[in-house]
Amino acid sequence: MVEQIFEGLKVADFSWVGAGPQIARELAYYGATVVRVECHRYPETTRTAGPFKDGVTGINRSAFSAAYNVNKYGISLDLNMAKGQEIARKLIGWADIVADSMSVGAMAKWGLDYESCKKIKPDIIYYSTCQMGQQGPYNRIKGYGFIGVSYAGYGHINGWPDRDPLPLFNNYSDFISPYYLITALIAALLHRRKTGKSVYLDQSQVEVGVNFLAPAVLDYTVNKRIACRMGNRDPHMSPHGVFPTCQADRWIAIAISNDDEWRKLCEVMGDPDWSKDAGFATSSSRKENEDDLEKRIGEWSCNYTAEDVMTRLQKAGVPAGMVQTAEDLFNDPQLKHRQHFRFLEHKEIGVHAYQSPAYRLSKTPCSITKAAPCLGEDNEYVYKEILGLSDDEIAELLIEGVITTDTDLPRVLCDKQ
Asked: What's the whole-number average pLDDT of the chain?
């Protein structure tokens, strides 16, 4: 079996919700041993968010939660209890990396902040990721990615010019910020290898979001132009949008960036008379007549299926793609060829699809072998094999409620309610 690039790396994962768990997951994809810590008394947010298997709610039935915690070991641990904090310190003593995505001050409250962890493990690598970062006048602002992307400016430019701002389909910063931090983690590991010193990484998810709006920020810096809502249009491309097809609610996206692509689009459409109009001759004139242009393209595209239009345009060298549904993605030949979806047997969900990394390493491909854990699923392995606790010690923790078992979990949650 090929040794993975992060083989032997040990991660104590105290992160939760979306952004934090993805970082540790990427390390787990490539061989790191990741132990995710969750409190059984206060279930982590994604465990209570859908979609749920068969539409039936349950603490272990969320596909949202499962997607971010594949390849990890999962333990239950109440960090509000002194013995829970003691166990957490044992885990940190074992780990190379500590993962934190909680609100500012939460880990410090339990004595698990960076300075405390460095006393336990002098060469620890510790990362924190939250909305605003650890310092500054707004560092205590709490929230999910929806708040972060709005604060970063996405809400202002998303939607149509004559309507209110639209939220993004998803909490965009949650899905781009992890890869910034993964890159920084690799640099931190190299630094520790050379110096033997610990590293603290402090990430602001809002600042990551602002980075992804660099063109708009630069345009304001240089030209004092404020980006505005444009629907599906682009400042420099025309046509640029999604167009109807003969199928109900099936669409084709087309993006023309130059006159050569425009001519090719016209050829595929059969060079209709209207395409020879002077109002469509250049990119600037097409922008000026965009409403009419989109109407005419839609009148052509609505005679064909989305796949037919996509195939014909791509064959001619025109950038185009059908707007795919989730079902389309599972049947997509390109994604199948790259084995993007991997299927594992989850303890409660059953056979469940997991997305593989969007990048491929030639010598050490990712290994997706362990379905996301149910809450506390790996207590026995972690507490006995990794932390070396005896059966009596584990039994005492169970009796005192510091940890719980799968069978005790429903009772604990009912008691909380």
From this structure: 93
Domains and CATH numbers, the chain: 10-211+338-416 (3.40.50.10540), 240-325 (3.30.1540.10)
pLDDT 10s digits, 290-313: 999 999 999 999 999 999 999 999
CA distance 196 to 308: 58
Q: 171: closest CA among 145, 151, 201, 133?
A: 145
pLDDT digits (tens, 9 = 90+) for 145-156: 888 889 999 989
Provide the CB-side half-sphere exposure for 261 (13 A, CA). Answer: 17
Selecting among 78, 96, 100, 174, the annotated active-site residue is 174
174 is a catalytic site residue: yes
pLDDT digits (tens, 9 = 90+) for 10-61: 999 999 998 999 999 999 999 999 999 999 998 889 999 989 999 999 999 9
Please report which confidence band the pLDDT of residue 191 belongs to, taking 50, 70 and 90 as the band edges. Answer: very high
